[in-house]
Amino acid sequence: MVFLFIMQLVWKYIDDIAGKGIEWYYVVELLFFWSAGVIPMALPIAVLLSSLMTIGNFGENYELAAMKSAGVSLFRIMRPMFGVMIFVAIGAFYFSNYVIPVANLKAINLIHNMSQQKPTFNIVPGAFYGGISNFSLKVGSKGGEHQEILQDIFIYDHRDNTGNNKVTVAKEGEMRIIGNNEYLELTLKDGHSYEDVKATRRDERQRKPFIKSSFEKSIVRFSLQEFQSGDLRENNMKNFFMYNTTQLMAEADSIYKDYNNRKTEFANYFADKYSFRRINSDSAGAYTQIDTENFIQSVPKTYQKRAIQNALRMARGNREYLINTINEYKWRKELHARHYLEWHKKFALSVSCIILFFIGAPLGAIIRKGGLGMPVVVSVVIFLIFHILNMMFDKMGRQLALEPWLAIWLPSMILAPAGIFLTQRAASDSGLMSAEAWKNIFKKITSRFKKQEE
User: Fold this and answer.
1) Residue 44: which of 373, 390, 371 has the closest Cα?
2) What are phi and psi of 136, to 5 degrees?
3) Beta strands in 357-437 (DSSP E)
4) Is 102 in the same domain as 142?
């Protein structure tokens, strides 16, 4: 299951990894960190599948029937596996709390640093190459033993950010890497250099002055420091995916305090924003009370139109400020909720493993099929339901439609009754997969409605 989920991530981030000239051991490290990060998705379905296959093999080989005929109940058969599941659940919590945050920190920073790397230096004839910062190169053709001989060379210099005002043209040249792969050196032959002159006066701008020079040989060097990988393991970003429970609570408290401080600042700023009860009438700081009901009448008529325009402009500006403040509040509350969502996920992983165990083991006793056939199909269907519930309620929690604790624990609350029902049916040897069993359940339900009607 870890392998399948890793392949999903590989296809998702293939554009950030491929064609960047990144060393192979960085890719191996990234896959290793990803393997830890996908445990919360892989472990529940692995528990479900393994418990279903184990009990299913017992049933398929009539070992389950032999144990029950000897007086061993299903609960007694499941007891050793449940003991193992307790250790798995405890280990899942500690793994999710201490290992996964570090793995996420390493993986996210590594993939971010990989995506920032420039593509491997490769000039294609007939196409502009912009891999070198502030320059754009184009060559007509390449030749030589190592493709170092260039023909019809164009070099555009964009260092002044004013467009294509500087251009160098050469009929041929030679390219080589020097200085321990730190510089690209182009030896240009039989070329020209053009540069537009920025005129200050109007009559000079109309004449469009420029500088032109010719050369038989010219050497141009480009820095290739940006192509050096450096240490891609450098940590330059951190978020809630990379915290343990203690750090999540501390960060959530800090965010909540900042949120309250921001509300206080906003309230103080707007306290007297529209309180036009007095005006500063002189330079000494004296205030004059004004008539708020007929404020516009206290303004001289020659300034009334300007006062209204200024008031409208202030109102529009304050409206935009209010909208931005509302969005800021929403962002702070969503960020606060994300920390609590991650905090509850640490514990929900262990509980979900136990619940899926009590779904898989009874299903194995009912289906009585082992191997990788029917158990895989049933496990995938159940896990899809569990995964969809997780994604749906998690999104509702992020959007503040549900409380964080409720958004995380609802999938477990929904599946827990299913586990209890299946365990009860399997322990009482009730046929769940047969049509006769469902007819009996349906008859019991209809009979109760008939009794109520009578």
Assistant:
1) 390
2) -135, 125
3) none
4) no
Task: Please indicate, yes or no, whether residues 139 and 111 belong to a single structural domain of this protein.
Answer: no
SS3 23: coil
* In a domain? residue 332: no
- Does the pTM of the predicted model rise above 0.70? no
d(CA 216, CA 218): 7
Residue 452 CA: distances (Å) to CA of 438, 445, 448: 22, 11, 6
- Residues 13, 104 within the same domain: yes
CB atoms within 10 A of CB 100: 24
Is the distance from CB of 121 to CB of 184 less than 8 angstroms?
A: yes
- 201 found inside a domain: yes
pLDDT of residue 185: 84
Can you tell me the distance from the alpha carbon of 220 to that of 137, in angstroms, rounded to the nearest whole number? Answer: 12
- Would 219 be classed as within a structural domain? yes
Domain hosting residue 25, numbered range: 2-116+338-436
DSSP 129: B
Residues 108 and 30 in one domain: yes
Between these two residues, 20 and 195, which has the higher pLDDT value? 195
pLDDT for 120 equals 47
Between 44 and 165, residue with greater pLDDT: 44
Highest mean pLDDT of the ranges 156-170, 245-259, 273-287, 358-372? 245-259
Q: Could you say which of 195, 227, 259 is where a domain stops?
A: 227
pLDDT at 399 over 60: yes
CA 214 – CA 169 distance, rounded (Å) = 10
Residue 121 placed within a domain: no
The residues pairing with 137 across neighbouring beta strands, listed in sequence order, are 129, 155
Q: What is the pLDDT of residues 366-383, one digit of tens each?
A: 887 777 777 778 888 888
Coil, helix or strand at residue 201: coil
- State pLDDT tens for residues 200-252: 776 666 677 788 888 888 888 887 665 554 455 555 556 777 888 888 899 99
Number of domains in the chain: 3
- For residues 110 and 155, membership in a common domain is answered with no
